[in-house]
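Researcher: Next entry: thymidine phosphorylase (Rhodothermus marinus).
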Amino acid sequence: MPEAVTLIIKKRDGGSLQPEEMRWLVEAYTWGKVPDYQMSAFLMAAFLRGLSDAEMDALTQAMLHSGQVLDLSDIPGRKVDKHSTGGVGDKVSLILAPLVAACGVPVPMISGRGLGHTGGTLDKLESIPGLRTDLSIAAFRRQLRTCGVVMIGQTDEIAPADRKLYALRDVTGTVESIPLIAASILSKKLAEGADALVFDVKCGRGAFMQREADARRLAETLVGIAVRAGKSAVAWLTDMNVPLGRAVGNWPEVVESLRCLKGDSAGIEDVLEVTLVLAGEMLWLGGVAPTPAAGREQARQALMKGWAFERFCAMVQAQGGDVRLLEHPERRPGAEPAGDVFAPEMAQGYVADLDARAVGRLAVRLGAGRRVKEEAVDPTAGLVLHRKPGDLVAPGDVLATLYTQQRDQLETFRQELLAAYRFGATPPAPRTLLLDRYAEGRWAK
Ligand code: URA
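Model: Predicted structure:
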């Protein structure tokens, strides 16, 4: 049995751990035989020195096998899931998962909560009154079989090593490491039993990877680990400099998703574009479309015919949510707006820019996210943007509507949002939303 200190020194000095050494370290840490202080030292050494592909694979496998690994082979069809690295206003999973299921590809999805200034799918789903995301593994399997789509949170049985390691990384300055992030994500995604994975790697101000080079490396790393683990995988690099869609916050994003699910994407064409491109990949990987482009068209048709909305309602019902609100979201109690934000005198012409990170931080302060881990989120808090980059604007126009219980701070919130906007006399250059695609070892749209 190796000694933890020997492995720490090996990594510190630029060496590579053998797979069995990595496995031993992760297992010993998970079972409390290696203390936090030694694991912290190892994580920092890994952060500074990096990990080889073999080390990343061994770390991922060790974290994966610290808990249950689902075998869904008794459920017909190729199961496909998608993972986003996190953004502001990114409600794509809510539309995508039922859409792909409605087209015949089962979607087993284990999602996370909001992290920092970014939102999380679980918090969004739980803003639907009654909806539960803490299903047992047995209920998860049952619903996947009957409904074709299920969206839950990480349970104690899924990758417990990641839970422990992530909490340690959070307080030891070792989160922003591409190999550690990739191993953490894949340990959970490989556990859920999907045959193929699509990654939406966000890039820009509102993303964890702000530089394109880092986002590309993360995409390559995620796909690389998945493929070496025997899964098919594709990654898209998508822009996250400006919030996706117009709603930011849990219930506001559900309301916007419902509009898209019902076939109305006016003003939220960016949400539709990302959703359809990812749906195309999932239908292709799931074996029901001959190419990603054909899959995109199939998904567009299904959305227009209302199949995705029907499937979303079935999923919400199966998970205990109040389906009546899906037809009439305006009836949800507690969702009254707190106030509007108006364009200032100098706003003559166009919205030139809007900082996604600043908007995400404001959403957290409005109550939509957590400043500390234990904090509860306010399901209805958030904002809806009526003016985004490229839109015409004049003084006094309503830029946004704010939703918050903290009405005494409304003026401060208004100023914070105004500081995230820039205005100009001419329209800004159009943004490229879908930056690049990575599959089979190469980048090509
Ligand atoms: N999300 C994860 O699941 N793990 C990380 O390390 C970062 C983001």
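Model: Note for the record: The mean pLDDT is 96.
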